[in-house]
């Protein structure tokens, strides 16, 4: 990884409409807040924490429809475990693209 990218941190992020859809389609609520406002407050706090630690957090937006389709293709439930797997895939895609620059 290039020197300037060593402190870059992929930070998965939801848009409000995607978060509400995620709540609707999730089979369980583990790891989710009751609403976007609560999720956003926690996410911002974590984002700022990493900035203070010297990282350069970068938002990687998650598309819930893409996630649901990903679950369908793999016959996986829409739940905490599959959500974490999908988020990791998106973070890794971000890092691979970062290395191309």
Structure description:
Strands 1-2 form a two-stranded parallel ribbon. The model has no long low-confidence stretch (mean pLDDT 92). The chain is globular, with a radius of gyration of 14 Å. The chain is mostly helical. It has one domain (3-100). The protein contains four helices and two strands, in the order βααβαα. 58% of the residues lie in helices and 12% in strands.
Give the SSE layout:
Elements: E1 8-13, H1 16-25, H2 36-52, E2 56-61, H3 64-74, H4 80-100
The count of domains is 1
Strand content: 5-15%
* Helix-strand pattern: EHHEHH
How much helical structure, as a percent, in the residues? 55-70%
Task: State the secondary-structure class.
Answer: mainly alpha
Q: Regarding quaternary structure, how should these chains be classified?
A: single chain
What gross morphology would you assign? globular
Query: Biggest sheet: strands, sense, closure?
Result: 2 strands, parallel
Gist of the model:
The chain has helices at residues 16-25, 36-52, 64-74, 80-100, and strands at 8-13, 56-61.
For this entry, give a set of tags.
two-stranded parallel sheet, 101 residues, mainly alpha, globular, 4 helices, 2 strands
């Amino acid at each position: 990884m290039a020197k300037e990218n060593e402190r870059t941190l992929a930070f998965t992020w939801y848009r409000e409409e995607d978060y509400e859809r995620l709540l609707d389609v999730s089979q369980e609520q583990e790891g989710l807040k009751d609403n976007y406002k609560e999720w956003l407050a926690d996410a911002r706090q974590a984002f700022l924490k990493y900035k203070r630690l010297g990282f350069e957090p970068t938002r990687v937006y998650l598309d819930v429809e893409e996630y649901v389709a990903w679950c369908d293709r793999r016959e996986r439930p829409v739940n905490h475990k599959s959500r974490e797997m999908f988020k990791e895939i998106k973070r890794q895609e971000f890092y691979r693209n970062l290395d191309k620059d």
